[in-house]
Amino acid sequence: MTALLFIAVCAAGGIGAALRFVVDGLVRARVRTVFPFGTALINVTGSLVLGFLTGLTLGAVLAPEWELILGTGVMGGYTTFSTASVETMRLIQNREYLPALVNGLGMLVLTVLLGLLGLWLGSLL
């Protein structure tokens, strides 16, 4: 990896984190519930996009360097497994067991399925 590519991935990670902050804030301002819809939306859409980017790269439509910048950088900064884990534990601590189950297991299943969907869509191009 070149120094320029490393800097680009780092900068892209910052862009992804800022995007996550904005999306989560917009969702929280509009949806008032104990369920962390913002984080769920972020992780699900991020998995779809990352799968799509991977499909494009495997089909030689997207250069591997761009997959690193957009996938590892932007989507790595955008998605957040640790926040999803903390929010699931917070739901359990608040005895919100069904939302905790839906958040923990539901997000796992949805992110994998949408990652596969993105991979398939990217491979069509």
Automatic annotation (TrEMBL):
Keywords: Cell membrane, Ion channel, Ion transport, Membrane, Metal-binding, Sodium, Transmembrane, Transmembrane helix, Transport. It holds the Pfam family CRCB. It is found in: Cell membrane. The keyword rRNA processing does not apply. Na(+) binds at residues 76, 79. It is a multi-pass membrane protein. Belongs to the fluoride channel Fluc/FEX (TC 1.A.43) family. This is Fluoride-specific ion channel FluC. It comes from Lysinimonas soli. The gene is crcB.
